[in-house]
Design brief:
homodimer; alpha/beta; 13 strands; 34% helix
Chain lengths: 363, 363
């Protein structure tokens, strides 16, 4: 079977080059006589893998020296508790959340189980069709941080610019936009993301955190494995890390550098997104809930026909045409095309062509 | 480079058959046109992978229907906090630990941060050279469980039989003996293990837990992601699981079934261990700290020459002979050969031959 165009929201498409390389090295990584899966995490070969991955990620994102880069387990979902536990519980125990979709809402609700978390802006009353008004946010003076999910995978929303946190620390879940464009890391206290969307296989979460925000290595009520200081001090080797996933991420980092880095990815991703949003806006059948072009995610594009039966037919017929995983998230229905770094422009054009054909046949 | 004999304590050797199969499927899993790394965790293809893996594991271990099987992230180390949080915090908040090595000691210390954990037997005063006396254990009447690490990877100790817990629930860390021999699951309340020793790539921990021991789905102070009920109710798909690792574990399960199951593995592992321990006992150079043959681990065999310089020389010269990762854990020094399922008998014989040669040259 030829490779298909895979529009899954995550786990998602990876560069074919990376997969071929991984397959070729599966039984013998660079003359070691073993697979990366079989290597001690403290061996020289794996040490080189994780150190190189970190250095390449630092290069790609231009991460300042006073930030730690951690490769952890548990997904972004474990950090929904981990972030308040690390950044707030040992301080004022208060943090302010902006809620613009399912993931920021989940993070907010989980944080509220451990600290005094407050939702200071939300677009829930308009079904998360926009970024809430960010002018003059009612941030509490003693809030330990302000939290955003910078790209909402399910609702297809992104922040055109980061909010004015009035001097408070900004924490950002960048899972579904990680490495899709340059970001100014120095404006954040902590950036994190599950890698299974734009970077690698599920099972690795990357945390980039300003060193001075790390807590003590023991916090009452916080599992040792959730303490970011513990992992920072041990350079992600406190316990056995998800070695193979880190190895694949490292290959993707190298690949992105060779492709021109994040500036190049941003240009390509903007082009791909324009092709798809233009097709939706020009269509009489398909609609996109997010009206403001600046707030439309360049990674996750949800759209609908307005008729659930027709949506279902679209998903089925698209798959037969080699365009997979176009179903919207089960919580909102409809359709969604995730067009991460590894989805080629040709894939988006094939999708748009199919949409036109489908519209002609079904309108 | 030919494949080497890899005696790493974990991540560790995997069956070559499994690695070849994974490499062949890397770009196109069974005609899906995508890698398992790229698949939505809710796709039919991945659903079949995780369901088949669970069924094969249930077959292999003969797991009763009233036990849940969970594929989680975070390693055994996260469960050091997770187990007391789930099995004790909502009940009496007391649990009793038997400490026979570094891993049970770590688990005990972490548990004591969340509940009233008590060490009821220990062999620390003899440097963990034996399983502590298990006759008439001073288990507290209201202890929620009794905890053991059934095979201590660093000290090379194993339980000849499980302790009499006087009707209390038994919790066992089986990380480094998982699937090495049949165990009677019905005698345990919870069995868990990181897979990176005997089963698959680092980044998956398997928890087998009796259904009636699962807590409510919200426990004060416990992150949602650490609640075993949450994962059980969602069949390990509460969030994105470590899909690729689960896929490899599934392949190993199938491979073990084809090899004759755990009875066959137990026979082979006992034979391999006998070859190595006999060589140590017959040697004038090498010594093993664990005196009682019944308590000697069949998976991890620590030994020493008594001379750190000679140990170092042994590790270096062995590697040149294609025998890798024979250094003891950094906390205890010396030498260690981990001879998990995937280490072939020929590998153990090659090691023993090398030991004899080294002894003749260095004694």
């Amino acid at each position: 079977m030829p490779r298909v165009y895979n529009f899954s929201a995550g786990p998602a498409m990876l560069p074919e080059y990376v997969l071929k390389d991984a397959a070729a090295e599966m039984l013998d990584y660079k003359g070691t006589g073993m697979s990366v899966m079989e290597m001690s995490h403290r061996s020289p070969a794996f040490t080189a893998i994780i150190k190189t991955a970190e250095r390449d990620l630092r290069d790609l994102m231009n991460i300042p020296d006073n930030y730690k880069v951690l490769f952890l387990q548990g997904g972004a979902s474990l950090q929904f508790a981990g972030i308040p536990m690390n950044l707030s519980l040992p301080k004022n125990g208060k943090a302010d959340y902006i809620v613009d979709g399912s993931w920021s809402e989940k993070a907010y609700k989980e944080a509220a189980r451990f600290i005094d978390a407050k939702c200071i802006a939300s677009s829930k009353d308009t079904n998360f069709d926009r970024i809430p008004d960010l002018s003059d946010l009612p941030i509490r003076d003693d809030a330990d941080y302000v939290y955003i999910c910078e790209n909402e995978t399910i609702h297809g929303l992104t922040y055109p610019e980061i909010p004015d946190t009035k001097g408070h620390i900004l924490v950002s879940d960048q899972s579904s936009m990680f490495l899709s464009k340059p970001v100014d890391v120095s404006k954040y206290g902590l950036i994190y993301g599950g890698v299974q969307k734009n970077v690698g296989p599920a099972g690795v979460v990357i945390v980039i955190v300003r060193e001075d925000l790390l807590p003590e290595d023991k916090i009452d009520g916080v599992p040792t494995m959730m303490n970011l200081r513990v992992h920072a001090d041990k350079e992600s080797l406190y316990n056995t890390p998800p070695c193979y996933g880190i190895y694949i991420c490292g290959k993707v980092f190298k690949y992105l550098k060779a492709q021109g880095g994040l500036e190049a990815m941003a240009i390509r991703n903007a082009e791909k997104a324009k092709i798809l949003y233009d097709a939706i806006d020009e269509s009489k059948l398909f609609k996109c809930a997010v009206a403001d072009p600046a707030q439309r995610s360049k990674m996750n594009v949800p759209f609908v026909t307005g008729n659930p039966d027709l949506d279902k037919k679209f998903v089925e017929e698209a798959a037969l045409a080699g365009l997979w995983n176009l179903k919207g998230h089960r919580s909102v229905g409809g359709l969604r095309a995730s067009i991460y770094n590894a989805v080629p422009r040709e894939g988006v054009i094939a999708l748009v062509d199919f949409m036109k054909k489908f519209e002609a046949e079904n309108l």
